[in-house]
Fold this protein.
Amino acid sequence: MSEILSKKNCLSHYKWGENCDGWNFISKLEAVIKQELMPPHTAEKLHFHHFAEQFFYILKGEATFLIEDKALTVHENSGLQIKAGLKHKIMNQAVNDLEFILFSYPGTENDRTDCE
C-alpha cells in the first residue's frame, strides 16, 4: 500500500550542521530522499561522494552552492544536479530559511568524504 509522507510522517527526523533539520522519506541502498531546512547564515562542510550523484530542489529560499571552487546560486522552484566525485557544499547566506528536497542516488551511506 502507498503511504503519504511528510515532515510529521517520515522515517526519521535528525539535526545536522549548525542547527539544521532533516527528514528522511526514503532510505535505500539505491536512493535516499530527504527534505532539509537550513536557518539563515548556515553551511555544511565541503565534501564529496565517490559513487552518489545528488539532486537538490529548492522549495523555499535561495541556496548558494560551492562546487569545485565555483559558486552557484539556485532560487526557489529550481534544482541542481551534482555529479559523483565533485567537491561541494550548500550554504544559506540569506536572511530567511532555506528548505529543499535532496535526492541521492545511489544512497550516500559510507560514501561521504569531508574535505574541511
Observations:
- The longest strand covers residues 20-27.
- The two ends are 43 Å apart (CA to CA).
- The chain has a mean pLDDT of 96.
